């Protein structure tokens, strides 16, 4: 009887050990990474190893180019003028014109106030001073109308025998030139033959 009990105990113990081993093997198999996971990992590593550094540089360069604002420019003949250059030229030209007018005005006022001069000379000075005021008004009105018609940044200077019109342009068509001449003649009272249209030149500023 004892032999039978001992044999059964050994069989049960052996069976328990076999079940435990089978369970351990099954657990180990489920925890191991699959071949697909290994393949995916290897593919990711290959992608990193074979990345071209120039690709990263290109991305950085593209980002920098997008973030750097470009200054608006206008092409004048063979030169490229920025808005700052155009504004500086116009301001300088108008200041020079105003200085010329100011000197003329001062000279005429000195004649008018000079007690040693005769009435004829003073009357002539007054007439010239009135003429100067009209010239200044006409120059401003012409520039304003040119700007309204799309010819901004203009400088108009009325002389004794001519009217100089300096514009910011690349080329003028016949129609555009005719329109400019029409504006200038109507606002200044000069003839077309007296109008001199010039292109803005930074070198002159």
Automatic annotation (TrEMBL):
Pfam families documented for this protein: SpoIIIAH (PF12685)
Positions of transmembrane segments: 7-27
Keywords: Membrane, Transmembrane, Transmembrane helix
Record protein name field: SpoIIIAH-like family protein
Lineage: Bacteria, Bacillati, Bacillota, Clostridia, Lachnospirales
